[in-house]
Write a structure and sequence with these properties.
Elements: H1 7-26, H2 37-43, H3 54-64, H4 83-95, H5 106-122, E1 130-134, H6 137-152, E2 165-170, H7 175-183, E3 191-194, H8 207-216, E4 220-227, H9 239-249, E5 252-256, E6 281-285, H10 286-289, E7 297-301, H11 344-353, H12 356-380, E8 383-386, E9 392-397, H13 404-421, E10 427-431, E11 434-440, H14 448-460
Parallel strand pairs: 2-3, 2-4, 4-5, 5-6
Antiparallel strand pairs: 1-7, 6-7, 8-9, 9-11, 10-11
The chain binds pyridoxal-5'-phosphate.
Amino acid sequence: MKEHYDPERFRELGKRVVDLLADALAAPGAVLPWRTPDENLARWPVRDDGGGDLVEILARAIAGSTRLHHPRYAGHQVTAPLPAAALCDLVSAFLNQGSAVYEMGPVANAMERQVVRWMASRLGLGDAADGVLTSGGSAGNLTALLAARQARAGWDAWSEPGPPLAFLVGESAHYSISRATRIMGWGAGGAVAVPADASGRMRAGELAAARAAAERRGRRVIGVAASACSTATGVYDPLEAIADHCAREGLWLHVDGAHGAAAALSERQRWRLRGIERADSVVWDGHKMLLVPALVTAVLFRDGRRSYEAFAQEASYLYDGGGGEANWWDLGLRTLECTKLMMALKLWAVLATVGERALGEYVAETYERTARFAERLAAAGDFEVIPPESNILCFRHVLPGMDEGALDARQARAREEIIRGGGFYFVKTRLGGKTWLRVTVINPLTRDEDLDALADAVRRA
Ligand SMILES: Cc1ncc(COP(=O)(O)O)c(C=O)c1O
């Protein structure tokens, strides 16, 4: 093994690997080098003889992978990471800080606390706010809802399951919210759907009726989960009206800002988040709109003490003195993970080297580019669009004389043909009983011309 730890060998290898990535950035090739799952399975049998050439293996892996840095990538909400942020992850992986306890991540844990407080401050959550970083928005939503349960159940819900509770959840909330309520043992009735308008925005006026209906079914409702913004259409729930309702009714307010909380960094777009400062908990993903590689999600609590309640158990072999704020540096007390990556490094470093202003400008530009694209599509007359509020846009190509079924099939067929050709990557979704094409303009390298070329490709397909 010793030779594999040779510093000079590593130095040489590292330079060649960075060259590979720089080449991939310079000439990304096909957005998605299309192969079927079985074809890829056949291309990657495990070889365990140890005789492989790492640079060759990595070059093949890069060549076969979806290229998020391609200006014509506009697919799922995963960012084209800043290359420098990817280097931070290399360092993070090399250092391999366990991070659950302070001694296994002295810098990691300090940076995490600072970054988390910085994010909370940008949302206006106040001086008492605190939280943690965790592995993705889904884990983040579960963490927040666990804390809500402990705060509002009225008994020690960590130790005693008690009767099932419920959260009011917008119809278009991300599935990880209803997954979290099921994980907590609340069953199918644990996430009570609140009707949405045609764009997928929660109707705050329906909250009281949804709650009353749930209570008639024997459920006690403890909170509301709002989206800022929603996954499918990228629209923001009316946070102020929802916060008013929660304040009046004594409900916990959770805001899933995995994607859209980043609007807080833009002077031009910040207004969309009005009301978020009144949330009890917020989730905000770095790997969506902060240009850092997956995974890194902040789970923020307006009352930072709630952060110690999500996972109330103690592991005395790991932690001295149990939970409580006195032990903020033992992060594992507050996260799903025990061993976790040094997640804060990339966020901390991007803030220091790129800066908040540039990130805010990036967010605003993607939102504005998407709005312009929607206007051009609507003006063209052969596209139907759902007016966007962020950098997510749903649209469909409409041709005269086609019924809804044929139009649905046409969207799906056009997408399939285009993505298999490797020229673009975008996705589709079902909304209001119809199939829509969906782009997320997340890559800072994407230009208006790329989006127009996509529209033309859809017309031609
Ligand atoms: C609003 C929202 N919440 C949560 C998630 C889940 O986040 P993750 O993929 O980081 O688990 C997503 C993912 O798209 C999302 O859009």
